[in-house]
Amino acid sequence: MNSDVYNAPEPVLPGSYLAARRAHLLDEIDRRSSRHWRVVKWFVDQPRRRRMMLVVALVIVLGGVGTALGLGLGLLGKDVAFHKRYDRGLFTAKPVSSFVYITRGTDWALIAWKSNRGICLDYAYEDTSNRFGFNGWSACGMPVVGSPPDKVFKQPPNTDLIGISMGSGNGVVAVSGPVAASVTKVRILLRDGKVFDPTIYAAPAKLHTSLRFYLLRVPSNRIRVGRPTAPAFPGEIRAVLAFGPNGTLLQRKDLP
Amino acid sequence: MDAFDDKRLWSRVREGDSDAFAALFDRYARSIHRYCFRRTGDHSLADDLMSVVFLEAWRRRSEVEPVRVLPWLYAIATNVLRNQQRATRRHRAALARVPVPVPEGDFADVVGARLDAERQMRSILEAVRSLSRLEQEVLALCIWEGLSSGEAAVALGVPEATVRTRLHRARAHLAASTFRQGTESQLLSCDPEGGR
User: Is residue B34 less than 8 Å (CB to CB) from chain A?
Assistant: First the structure.
């Protein structure tokens, strides 16, 4: 048998075989020249170690984004569920719109919603020590021009241009509120002379409002938050100012 | 079909010219298919491995500027044969798109001839199984494919002297085996000008 070792047979190739394979090969080359394949090719062409590093980096990034989104979405869901379960009193605010994010971070969120008691604003943050899985504070019925009227307690027409909701938790002092459409800048004055100009955020279209919202988040070691027994009330804030176009002072609200 | 022509074609391939690549395919596909068939004894597998070799060659076209294209294609083929699973996995989707061949003429004759060739090739592969992997590769490249020792060295990524040594050992092993079976072996060499 070994005499044949040196005489290996030729493969049997039907006439059209190579032509078909050639056509297939060219199709594949065209396919790989597409933009999508250029990315794949670039990745595949990297050295194995770099490919591994890229995969690890991608997993970390996706994991981080996913966690951030999960936490953020979780806060909205938890906030909605909380209000649905506990806001059953006769005079508590009943939602008349969806809850929406005004802005959010990895473990906190500013959430707004319309209610039968006017505009409501919740500041929520993740808190696993709490049985609800989150914590925060809520304010409704701020009589700012453009917000829905309070239908539970008859109020005079809304005339304020700025509303204020404050609290602290999770190492942060947060001051937020709705502002009328005419307000272009908000300034927060502390009693020690410090000044903060918080960011103003437009409301998502889903909220159907011309109101906008400001938020100031300051680490609680940078601002003294009243007495230790009442940490949610930032007694160091002296006033909140609303400015219009050209820097005109539209309203100033002093805090006691 | 000289090296200069290959080099010119390859420089076009490096720039993404698929027509030039098609020309190289026309030139060398039969050789690569034959090598794959002779290393596996399986027409269908050789069909796919040949496609993989050319897909890999296209993928890696910018990595090297081969002095001669064919030995480099044999080098890819040798790697593909060594790592068949990994190589085919990389191009699994492409292989799945290979059109089903349409039988032509007297298909039974073709099938019969293919089966005969496979049977014969498997018998040979069984006979060389006692050789080391490198000896089998040297045998396949130098004896079956007719590459020179220099070309085989390029294809295997080893020094030329190693090719000669391994070929000598392979021959010695096969001769001993043949002698034991009482038949005469052919004396073939890995000729630097070996024809194909």
Answer: yes
